[in-house]
Amino acid sequence: MSNWKLICPLDDIPPLGSRVVQRTSGGDIAIFRTATDEVFALHDKCAHKGGPLSQGLVHGKRVTCPLHGWNFELASGQAVAPDVGSCDTFEVKVEGGDVFLAV
Amino acid sequence: MKKSKLVLIGNGMAGVRTLEELLKIAPEHYEITVFGAEPHPNYNRILLSPVLAGEMQIQDIILNELDWYAEHGIKLHTGKTVTRIDRVRRLVIADDGTEEAYDRLLIATGSTPFMLPVPGNQLGGVIGYRDIKDTDEMIEAAKRHKHAVVIGGGLLGLEAANGLKLRGMDVTVVHLGPWLLERQLDEVAGRMLQKSLEDKGLKFLLQKQTEALLPAADGSRVGAVRFKDGMQIPADLVVMAAGIRPNYALAEAAGIHCHRGIVVNDTMQTYDPRVYAVGECVSHRGIAYGLVAPLFEQAKVAANHLASYGIGRYVGSVTSTKLKVTGIDLFSAGEFMGGRDDTEEIVLNDPAGGVYKKLVIKDNKLVGGVMYGDTADGPWYFQLLKDGRDIHDIRDTLIFGQNLVGDVGHAGNSKAAEMPDSAEVCGCNGVSKGSICKAIKEKGLFSLDEVKKHTKAASSCGSCSGLVEQILASTIGGAYTPAKLDSKPICGCTEHSHKAVRETISAQHLTTKEAVFDFMEWKTPNGCDKCRPAINYYLISTFPHESRDDPQSRLINERAHANIQKDGTYSVVPRMWGGLTTPAELRAIADVAEKYQVPTVKVTGGQRIDLLGIRKEDLPGVWADLNAAGMVSGHAYGKSIRTVKTCVGAEHCRFGTQKSMDMGVKLEKMLFDMYAPHKVKLAVSGCPRNCAEAGIKDVGVIGVDSGYEIYVGGNGGIKTEVAVFLCKVRTDDEVMEYSGAFLQLYREEGWYLERTCHWLERVGLDYVKGKILEDEDGRKALHARLLDSLKDARDPWQTSREAKPIKQFIPIKLEA
């Protein structure tokens, strides 16, 4: 059973933007918001050289890492071909204008 | 919705390339069936010569494995020759009776070698050179027989001859023309080529007409070739390479209009609107192309129309040629013969050194060229030719190649073909020549963009792009065509170029990214990291007060007003106008460094102090402390004005002629917060000793006794480029006006990520001089527009720490 944690109001994440959630252990989580208000969560660590994906540019349902430009699918955490790799994904939902993360 | 049926006749490079382009843009549009007469999946026909020469294996040249067809749900009939097209019932019928229905038909039947109509051309051992079967037959013949005769001294004939020689045969090339490759080379280059092939052991008979092929004594296969003049030579294998004939009999029999090929319009459609055709079987505007590069352009256009997008026209191609014989470098393109009344030629001829270059020029534009022995600059010349660039300002060094035209970086400095496989090509990502060649061959890459994606070479700083293009050109030969600069799409989200997007934004008065995506029919909902920052820049530079800056279209550095480092921390550089500072500022910087435990403090090349290793959440605090001491952002992170570097100048220096520090501060204040296509750096020196290094800046100002000299387009980075002299002015105000106008012109017309040196190379210094020096009103208007667009400039540090986006800097803490 997932334990949903309130993160922030959706409005605190800009469309095509992100926020960082700091955990006490296990590394940061990046929460992304698309242009159509879908929300996704990935481990904030690029599979290539560990860049903070939360600082990348969001487009469609993808994010481009700020360090070397790898692209990742927000939904699956998979790197976009021809790059190969993946980032952990986390369950996330929007209810009543608030964003919740499964921990 | 039921899918339409698309049938492709011809499982070769042009047809399958069209399918690939189609699947990229409309993967769900069609149920696809492919007929191929050969028993193989699609392979790279161009690389048959390296296979024959023993440098590659058949499996290396397969482009699409059977899995690829399965993966895309394509039904593949190999080894079946289509014998009839029934246009009334819309059916395709193959020799074994297989029938397939179509809604759209794509014909890509290619061509067949022309077999000389001489007695004996049906004998065993007489073949054309076209496919894997022919190649296998030649390899087999080389094992058992001695004498080979190749008829035809064109590209294909020479490659075949070279391969057979390497396989141990005694090879004679028979050629009707006065010299080899007379359609690709002029006489001088043709003779040089012949000499070096003779040195490799090939024999040549020029201006010889074949009369008959005679059977061997036992009658089993060919035994000799006899010429019109009575001469006779032994031949156990005869390869006909005297040209190709488009395969259009099938289309013609179906009543589709043909004239030396299947006639198509600029959308690759035949006279039957349901039927398209691409490749060597096609006659477009009266021309049938036999090289691969034009076919790929055709494929793109045909795919676009098959996908019902309805944009894109094929308007013909200029082709270039490269011979794939290891150890021989030749390149030709365009109208290389010259010798006409309206053309001029520049020739470099060094027979002893084995180098010959001829460039043909018409109306100050390169229209053709031949190179032998040193072809490193071939792709560069070809790009100049395709772009139709005015070359008169580089004419004096043009023949010596790109390196002498000002590129002293390593772009194209080494000759691609001569580099060992282990040599590092891309210094940023550590990619060797060997791994680039391997990716090109194994993955079937044909463009610079594809190589960038698959190997990462040239995908960071881009300085090795030229070299990667050369490797591409030398690996796949004539199949490589550089895209025309001003029509290269910005990225995969669109077909439109930077030029088209800039012009459309201005002409249609588009002021938001959504309007651009909508009007220009973007393929993605909100672009990508390549196009969105470019569009954002075009919008705010075209309509400075009307179009709103979109932070989410900026890359992180410009969003966080600091420079991201490899560990995710940031570097902060406060502005020091003209490189000047005060004890109070230094004290404030020292305090910040201590308070936030900044691990590294460094002096930069642009005369500033860099605080490295600051955590993102500390940025607003750092800015507040620096702001409190009167300092503002140094923009050391942006595609924007960076620094104005100065020397001490007349205030203190005993040699100084002008107050360079003062001039530098004034320029920097005028340009504060100026965004541009790329970063912009200036320098002001107080005398010609030029201690501020103004010669490698976007705008370099050098004080002389009577005023200032202004230099533009210098660059000290990726591509070291010496700034060129723009003009001499007398007063400080004139320095502001001329340099301001120059930068505004660049801001209004440059393409995103184009430094001033690249922009100048593209438009030419004369164009810029015309706008800045010869048009006083225009210059004043440019300067006024610059000042107007910067009139509301505010410190981005102060703005962003006071405004709502402050939230982006604060992480959300999750309690365990």
Structure notes:
The complex is a heterodimer of chains A (about 100) and B (about 800). With about 100 residues, chain A is mainly beta. Chain A contains no helices and ten strands. Chain A has a four-stranded antiparallel sheet, with no helix packed on it. In chain A, strands 1-10-9 form a three-stranded antiparallel sheet, with no helix packed on it. In chain B, about 30% of the residues lie in helices and about 20% in strands. Classes of the chains: A mainly beta (about 100), B alpha/beta (about 800). At the A-B interface, strand 1, strand 2 and strand 5 of A face strand 37 of B.
How are the SSEs ordered, and which strands pair?
The complex is a heterodimer of chains A (103) and B (816).
Chain A: E1 4-9, E2 17-23, E3 29-33, E4 39-43, E5 57-59, E6 62-64, E7 71-73, E8 89-90, E9 92-95, E10 98-102
Antiparallel strand pairs in A: 1-10, 2-3, 3-4, 4-8, 5-6, 6-7, 9-10
Chain B: E1 4-9, H1 13-25, E2 30-36, H2 48-52, H3 66-71, E3 75-78, E4 82-86, E5 91-94, E6 99-101, E7 104-107, E8 111-113, E9 126-128, H4 132-144, E10 147-151, H5 155-166, E11 170-175, H6 187-199, E12 203-206, E13 210-215, E14 222-227, E15 232-234, E16 237-240, E17 244-246, H7 249-253, E18 262-264, E19 275-277, E20 282-284, H8 292-306, E21 320-322, E22 330-334, E23 344-350, E24 355-362, E25 365-372, H9 378-387, H10 395-398, E26 424-426, E27 431-432, H11 433-443, H12 448-455, H13 465-476, H14 498-507, H15 513-519, H16 531-542, H17 556-560, E28 563-564, E29 570-572, H18 583-595, E30 600-603, E31 609-614, H19 619-628, E32 641-646, H20 660-670, E33 680-685, E34 699-704, E35 707-712, E36 724-729, H21 732-749, H22 756-763, H23 765-772, H24 776-789, H25 796-802, E37 812-814
For this entry, give a set of tags:
heterodimer, A: 103 residues, mainly beta, Rieske Iron-sulfur Protein, 3-stranded antiparallel sheet, 0% helix, globular, B: 816 residues, alpha/beta, FAD/NAD(P)-binding domain, Enolase-like, domain 1, 7 domains, 5-stranded parallel sheet, 37 strands, elongated
